[in-house]
Specification:
The protein is an alpha+beta fold and 440 residues long. The chain contains 17 helices and twelve strands. Residues 1-9 and 426-440 have low confidence and may be disordered.
């Protein structure tokens, strides 16, 4: 049938020109679809990395991804125009050659060809070759975006759309949870190592941590009275292995300064070991327990001090924080080769774990993949106190969300260590009967 139509002259020079235009528009639509996918999938960090490698087209790529809206709207508009014009021209040609039946055939042809050649094929190639496709498309897209008619038309249509739909607040392009997920994926794909992933998690969590979560609590502080002798204070510092000691009058709520071991050693060498240690103190720094540790670290670096007294909202001493405590929050525990410290987490037999009561609840949840509740308490010991409502006796236990907490060591009013056991999830109703029937 097609041969007879062509022979009768129904397919003329104008029709051939329309066919050429259709092919050109399909090619343009495919190229624009490739550009859309590749540029949208390229983030600013990747573009900057390509620019540092001096890849051709990377400079234009960086400028484009810094403002996605500037290139995305023109590309979407041009893709739509190409595909609509292509469909219209194919319909006209089919109607001229085959009549009404040709329109139906052209519709099916357009769906298949436009989807395969102008959508699926270029977009899939861009997904599997993101860098090559982005660098290839960047110069073309930059030229189209800079072409005044295209820019003016797309901007005008976007303004009309904005009048119909009120724009909301522009949120951050990448959230903390997305960054954490990216680090996890990078480790799984062996782009980064496990230690690097842990460091990334620590850095991101560092900004949300407050001093109360990392400080040495008040009962664990080593301090001396201001009227104690230099020799006595030096003995306390040597026994504890500390280079700085808080000095107070009466009780720890009245800290008057910090005694440096090097000052005490110098005084002892000069024969002033009998003088009160209060004569040799340096000014103490005080910070609220709700201060962000990231802010405190910057302050310690700028003002050049290594230790601060942590106070609560009533002005009482809550604890002590050092620069080492802040660094350990980032890189993990730092233990001197001569230090003898109890491990914060210790694996026991039969799947049990012994942890220090000061272990944060979120760290225990990460360790056991559990879902222990978090509230006004920060530590596992605080959770046990809150659940019981009193000081537990040694060996006393409680079950919380499928986890048994046992007070392993209690010293006075303080919990030292807690033994953890994950309980098996309860079997669903009827499971025991079904299991019995299977055995029978």
């Amino acid at each position: 049938m097609t041969g007879s139509l062509l022979a009768t002259g129904h397919f003329g020079g104008a029709d051939a020109a329309l066919l050429v235009v259709v092919v050109v528009l399909l090619a343009a639509s495919a190229l624009l679809a490739l550009a859309e996918t590749s540029l949208v999938r390229t983030n600013r960090a990747k573009a900057l990395a390509l620019r540092e490698q001096h890849r051709r087209g990377s400079a234009r790529l960086v400028r484009l991804v810094e403002d996605p809206q500037a290139f995305l709207n023109p590309i979407l508009l041009l893709v739509l125009v190409c595909q609509l014009v292509t469909a219209t021209l194919v319909g006209i040609l089919a109607e001229q050659l085959f009549g009404a039946l040709g329109v139906l055939a052209a519709t099916a042809f357009e769906v298949v060809v436009i989807f395969v050649l102008a959508e699926a094929l270029p977009k899939n190639w861009a997904v599997y070759n993101p860098e090559r496709s982005a660098l290839f498309a960047a110069p073309l897209v930059a030229a189209l975006v800079g072409f005044p008619p295209v820019r003016m038309l797309s901007n005008g249509l976007i303004r009309v759309a904005n009048l119909l739909v009120r724009q909301g607040h522009r949120e951050s392009a990448v959230s903390e949870s997305e960054l954490l997920a990216m680090a996890d994926v990078a480790m799984e794909e062996e782009v980064i190592e496990h230690q690097e992933r842990e460091l990334i998690h620590s850095i991101i969590g560092f900004g949300d941590t407050v001093v109360r979560e990392v400080m040495v609590p008040r009962p664990d502080m080593k301090a001396v009275e201001s009227d104690a002798s230099v020799s006595e204070a030096l003995g306390v510092a040597i026994a504890a292995g500390f280079s700085r000691l808080p000095v107070h009058e009466g009780n720890l709520d009245d800290v008057v300064g910090i005694a440096y071991a090097k000052d005490l050693i110098r005084a002892e060498r000069d024969g002033e070991g009998g003088r009160p240690v209060g004569d040799f103190v340096r000014p103490a720094r005080f910070v609220p327990e709700t201060k962000r540790v990231s802010s405190l670290m910057r302050e310690m670096q700028e003002r050049k001090y290594h230790q601060a007294i942590v106070v609560d909202e009533y002005g009482g001493t809550s604890g002590l924080v050092t620069l080492e405590d802040l660094i350990e929050e980032l890189v993990g525990e730092i233990v001197d080769e001569f230090d003898v410290e109890e491990p914060p987490v210790q694996a026991l037999a039969e799947g049990e774990v012994s942890v220090t009561a000061r272990l944060p609840v979120d760290e225990l949840n990460d360790l056991l993949h559990a879902h222990l509740p978090e509230g006004d308490w920060d530590t596992v010991g605080g959770l046990l106190f809150n659940v019981l409502g009193r000081v537990p006796a040694e060996g006393e236990s409680v079950e919380v969300d499928g986890v048994r907490l046992v007070a392993e060591r209690v010293q006075g009013h303080r919990i030292g260590r807690i033994r953890i056991l994950q309980l098996a999830a309860p079997a669903p109703a009827g499971a025991d009967d079904a299991e019995q029937r299977e055995r029978d």
